[in-house]
Amino acid sequence: MHNINELNSILSEADCLVSEAQLNEALDKMAQQIIDDLADKQPIVICVMNGGLLPTGALLQRLQFPLELDYVHASRYGMNTSGSDLNWTRYPQTDFKDRVVLIVDDIFDQGHTVEAIIKWFEENGARSVYSATVINKLHDRKVEMRPDYIGLDIEDRFLFGYGMDYQGYFRNLQGIYAVKGK
Ligand SMILES: O=P(O)(O)OC[C@H]1O[C@H](OP(=O)(O)OP(=O)(O)O)[C@H](O)[C@@H]1O
Ligand code: HPA
């Protein structure tokens, strides 16, 4: 547990890069694209925990067509790890063989996480795998692929809020913030 005063000052000094209203607008657009592509495909929506929790909930509220929901937990070991070095602590329980899958996560940063999860589903029998992230961080350290659905491009800073954590905190915020000076 962290010092509450330090956490409150991180938050009060942070720059708010995306407001709740901007998030909602971006989510509406993503959801419409997903509806256009997948409404007749009975997809299995896969939440990538923990960061994908809020984005998945927000998209599901907007996707009013037949779909199934499951989740995975796969995290990167460290900042210098390569794509295959994901630490899986939860695999999906739904039979996704020959099914359309939609991966949902908070951020596409370097992209190793989403790329490796897509590869895992493809190798294990999914018919096709789509991906959606609310945030795409802009820099040149990325894998080659891009998610099919992206909410917003954001500058290369350390972000928190709306799924993303600062030392385990602030995933719950209804906006996206950057730590002062980082
Ligand atoms: O595009 P990348 O450079 O791979 O980074 C993005 C991933 O990093 C974060 O997850 P993390 O592994 O920190 O786990 P968490 O969701 O539990 O925070 C985030 O939720 C993405 O899944
Ligand atoms: O900027 C970030 N913030 C929090 N978690 C993250 N995981 C990848 N990039 C980030």
Automatic annotation (TrEMBL):
Keyword Transferase included in the entry's annotation: yes
Keywords: Glycosyltransferase, Transferase
Domain of life per record: Bacteria
Gene Ontology BP terms: GMP salvage; guanine salvage; hypoxanthine metabolic process; IMP salvage
Location of the Phosphoribosyltransferase domain: 23-167
SUPFAM superfamilies, per database record: PRTase-like (SSF53271)
Catalysis performed (reactions): IMP + diphosphate = hypoxanthine + 5-phospho-alpha-D-ribose 1-diphosphate; GMP + diphosphate = guanine + 5-phospho-alpha-D-ribose 1-diphosphate
CDD domains in UniProt: PRTases_typeI (cd06223)
Cellular compartments per GO CC: cytosol
Keyword Transferase assigned: yes
Pfam families noted in UniProt: Pribosyltran
Protein name (database record): Hypoxanthine-guanine phosphoribosyltransferase
Single GO MF annotation: hypoxanthine phosphoribosyltransferase activity
Originating organism: Marinomonas fungiae
